[in-house]
Amino acid sequence: MRVSLIQPVVEASEPAAARRRRLAEQVRGRSGDDLVVLPELWTAGAWAYDRFAQDAEPLDGPTARTMSAAARHAGTWLHAGSIVERDTDGTLYNTALLFDRSGELRGHYRKIHRYGFDTGEATLMGGGRDIVTVPADFGVVGLAICYDLRFPELFRGLVDAGAELIVVPAAWPAARLSHWQLLTRTRALEEQVFLLACCATGEHGGMEQGGHSTVVDPWGTVLAEADRDERVVTADVDMGDVARIRSALPVLRDRVLGLAATTGR
């Protein structure tokens, strides 16, 4: 199967509606891909906290409608990155959207781990509570977002829920690029999954985003990686590799659960 990560420049100078039209056009041009991925909060800008309330939208809002139509036009599964979702009670969430080839919304995931350390996203948004996997025609897709990469428990939970491929939209800071490259490879390797991590580039909210969107296989090998420029990263993946690698090196089988902690004297 062929996967593509669209790595756009996300900057405050471009209005959200214009960026929505621009990226929808790129998605429509990906006919022949099996899965296309966009980055985190690419409409509002993940670091533009002052725009969250202004650019918030419901699950069936303008981004969902536009991306549904683009997925249907291209005939591809589309992970439309994440949006600032406003729930019916007014709570904001960082929510990822996954559409199938017909444009149907097949799954959404509210980011569990909110970044900010008592500022920014951590104070402005509610936290998700659910581990989300979605069966696709090529395998089971697990959903995570950006800062979630630092929490292995979520990724092990996704594998326990059947994930064979995990998608991570992000707006990772350029200053911590080495962490991004280490964690994306580590999560793919430890969970023996394909990991598709799509990061924005450009600067907004005073933060340079790192780019370097990447496709990593279940052996921890980088199959494709971008630089800091706006571009599309494409790779051919064989989903059969998941079962083959898990059989050849059955580390998931050897987990020991429920260990008790003791305190030495």
Question: Which helices and strands occur, and which strands form pairs?
Answer:
Elements: E1 2-7, H1 16-28, E2 35-37, H2 52-55, H3 62-74, E3 77-86, E4 92-99, E5 105-110, H4 121-124, E6 133-136, E7 139-143, H5 152-160, E8 165-170, H6 177-191, E9 194-199, E10 201-204, E11 207-210, E12 214-216, E13 222-225, E14 231-236, H7 240-248
Parallel strand pairs: 1-2, 2-3, 7-8, 8-9
Antiparallel strand pairs: 1-14, 3-4, 4-5, 6-7, 9-12, 10-11, 12-13
Helix pairs in contact: 1-3
Shape: globular
What is the strand tally?
14
**Total individual domains:** 1
- For CATH, the homologous superfamily is named as Carbon-nitrogen hydrolase
DSSP strand content: 25-35%
CATH-defined fold name: Nitrilase/N-carbamoyl-D-aminoacid amidohydrolase
Low-pLDDT stretches: none
CATH class: Alpha Beta
> What CATH architecture do you see?
4-Layer Sandwich
The proportion of residues forming helix, as a percent range, comes to 25-40%
Strand order of the largest sheet: 5-4-3-2-1-14
Order of secondary-structure elements: EHEHHEEEHEEHEHEEEEEEH
Rg, nearest Å: 18 Å
CA-CA gap between termini: 55 Å
Main sheet specs: 6 strands, mixed
Protein name: Carbon-nitrogen family hydrolase
Domain CN hydrolase: 1-239
InterPro entries: C-N_Hydrolase, C-N_Hydrolase_sf, UPF0012_CS
GO molecular function: hydrolase activity
What does this structure look like?
- With 265 residues, this protein is of the alpha/beta class.
- It has a single domain (2-249), classed as Nitrilase/N-carbamoyl-D-aminoacid amidohydrolase.
- Helix content is 25%, strand content 28%.
- The protein is built from 7 helices and 14 strands.
- The protein has helices at 16-28, 52-55, 62-74, 121-124, 152-160, 177-191, 240-248, and strands at 2-7, 35-37, 77-86, 92-99, 105-110, 133-136, 139-143, 165-170, 194-199, 201-204, 207-210, 214-216, 222-225, 231-236.
- A 6-stranded mixed beta sheet has the order 5-4-3-2-1-14.
- It is globular and about 55 Å long.
- The protein starts with a strand and ends in a 17-residue tail after the last helix.
- The relative contact order is 0.16.
- The model has no long low-confidence stretch (mean pLDDT 97).
